[in-house]
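Lab notebook, page 48
Experiment: co-folding of the full assembly
Goal: obtain a model of how the components sit together before planning crosslinking
Operator: M.T.
Materials (sequences as entered):
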Amino acid sequence: MKARNRELFGLIPASLLVVAGFTAVFIQRQDQVSNVSLTYGALFLGLCLGGHFFLRFALPNADPYLFPLFAALASIGLVMIYRIDETLARQQAQWFVIGLACFAATIIFLRDYRKLERYRYLIATASILLLMAPRLPVIGGTVNGAYLAVDIGPLTFQPAEFAKIGIVIFLASYLRDTRQLLVQGSRRILGVTIPPLKQFGPLLVVWGLAMLMLIFIRDLGSSLMFFGAFLALLYVATNRLSFVVVGLGMFSVGAWFFASNLAYVQDRVDIWKDPFGSGVIDNEGYQIAQSLFAQADGGVFGVGLGQSLLDLPGGAVIIPAPDTDLIYAVITNELGLVGACGVILLYLLIVERGFRIAQLARDSFSTLLAAGLTAVFALQVFVIIGGVTKVIPLTGVTLPFISYGGSSIVANFVLLALLLLISERARSREREEAG
Amino acid sequence: MNKPILRLYGLVLVLFAALIFATSWWTVFGADDLRSNPNNRRALLEQARVKRGTITARDGTVLARSVPAPGGLYSRTYPSGDLFSQTIGYSFINFGRAGLEQYRNPELTGQRPELSSIIDQLMGKKAVGDEVQTNLDPQAQRVAIEAMAGRKGSIVALEPATGKIRVMVSVPGFDPNSIPDDLSKLNTDNENSPLLNRATQAQYPPGSTFKVVTATAAIDSGKYSPDSIVDGSSPKEISGVPLSNSGGAQFGRIDLTTALTNSVNTVWAEVGEKVGIDTMAEYMKRYGFYAKPPLDYPANQRIASGERGANGELLSPTSNLIDVGRMAIGQDKLTVTPLQMAMVASAVANGGVLVAPRITDRIIDSDGRVRNDIKSTEVIRVMKASTAQQITKMMSNVVREGTGTAAALSGIAVAGKTGTAEKNPALDLNQVWFIGFAPADNPTIAIAVTIEDSVGGQGGTVAAPVARQVLEALL
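Observation: model returned without errors.
Model output:
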């Protein structure tokens, strides 16, 4: 079967998901199935089909599973957001349109994505400036004490979502050039392999600046993602575990330093250790405690779609930020352990496709780019779900394609476009050679 | 570069497995802890969607019922108002639960084992709470509250043979219907502590009512008999400090029965010392001291009776900090709950066998079937039947001709013991007591009555008449 036909079949489960989801929410609300509300589902399906036909024409050989997997995530997200707040769902649907436009634009204008390599320092600088933007006067804005957002007119966007792609592009491109040198030029000092400073220097500078910016804007979740992606790429490029070990060592020292010196990091760790303590649970620990209560309430099969309690009678919020940070808790509450595992499995399949694309790619830049994008995506999922389930301290990043948020949708559509472009290139080469 | 990518994928697998493990932990294995966390209002709210079962009295009077509230929820009303305030307690979404409402919450919300509840859920059956039928007697309760006439204190009355609690009064009470408006006010009213169930939570000095326990230990251990001749002179050296009788009265050589009839301190303190701390501890434990009283009531609303240290902590029953002589007459650092003293009377009344008290009689499901017929499984023999008979005789004398004559009923023999513990000699404030049972030859009700800060009052003059009214209502 042709790749694109597989994709079309793959979209069937996604569309069933969205239909079933909306129906369940309707039934729960005991509304009549109103036309206005049903249009969300129809619009969404139309968008998926549109995307599919665009891919048929633009990237006939690209991986057939990625797009349906993203569509499935997006449909879960849309149903959940619709269930939380109808207005937000309408905006989210609009963001899908914009995201899909950016997706198409990326595919059309970056058909030969390898030209990105030429602009790597420009991209790196732009990413760092993007990260700094929320701290600038006038346009900067804070979310929960972190400087995450930029306000331009009526638009608010979160630059870290875009910066993560930029930094991965830079790292992939830089490591392609220097990976041999990093390995060959390294010396062993006191049993530790040290890469040559000449090649390693610029890498450290760019990455270090990015980390500094993240500390500057207090975005702990993103710093974790960036650091992890950096180590993953370094490892893939050099196949040297010792680099990773040294990196983790540096990270531990850094983490310990920040945890004991920066009040806001310290707070996060303290809340993580005991969110149920008296005085904590009603304040800083409220979010994580309520998240866990909601999950416990869900049990194995969940309380049912649309049944989750978000507010108490009288107006008190019982799940803060249900549409963004804690959306995973809402999913677990309503769909139970089974539904939550389903969502994690979807992400795992995407990661598997991403790494497969990286393995199929013929040139190092493509491999590194695909591996880096996939790693940063996987880490983002781990950081937010890990935070919500108290595996690590809770920090605010979005759950890709499920959480509400324009920046997240658009950035992840671009990420998807890049993965598909790399896949198309690798697989059409394969077909040419075979044919 | 394929190998590192594969390993990287392996790492992602491990990380995601951790997420699945964590989610399983919170949703399944650790879920019970989270659900029972007092800060988890979600559980309360979920249960408010269930039509909570009614709580009824012995005669069918509805004590608590659910009425539909906005948002598909139910809220609680208490038709009998403040009649059973602390005993029944309350249940409100935003204010938590207390009393029997808290203890019987699983039944009242119709909780079933996990599997059958999943089946019910799949079949679309809505959970409905079970009805909790209690042994409480509204009419006698009303009489009891009126007899207290607003004085702070407590009354507990139960059936010795079955442990069924018929009356449980704690004054001042509160109207559970007003909890949503007044909880914080009630909570901070430290002068009256209306939320405190004095019957199960108070720490009162028992005074001379404790001599019943001392008499049990003395006679059942074989060291004394009711006819043993003892020395009632006053003062007497107890633990190196002189102890006097009430009013310095001299009794000379009397028998043990007379010593109880007239509540002679010097005799009973000496008996306590002669019986010794080990035997005293043994009998106290049999009566239920030094443990939370067994009752279908929340553990945080029950406290143990016994000797307490400087910081209010329960001492070891054989601690060398205990002055056994003074403890034997209900002094020293001994504090008790009215429920415990009612259990003492009950054990004597029931031929020496203590049947654990209980508020609940039966649990009835929504189809009218009896789900659980609550039988007291905890039955302890405190003393030989013959000892119980002898103590009953001694206690009958107290009411017939001793300090407890005010508890006497016409035509029915009452057995009992009075107590007067000096709480503040300067202001002449006493903790007054009466414990007993009736009819003496075939007891159906055991009772403990106590009143706080009675100005110049005596157990025989203040508490005994209250007991008489309650016994009259119950017999």
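Interpretation: DSSP finds 14 helices and five strands in chain A.
Next step: discuss with group before ordering constructs.
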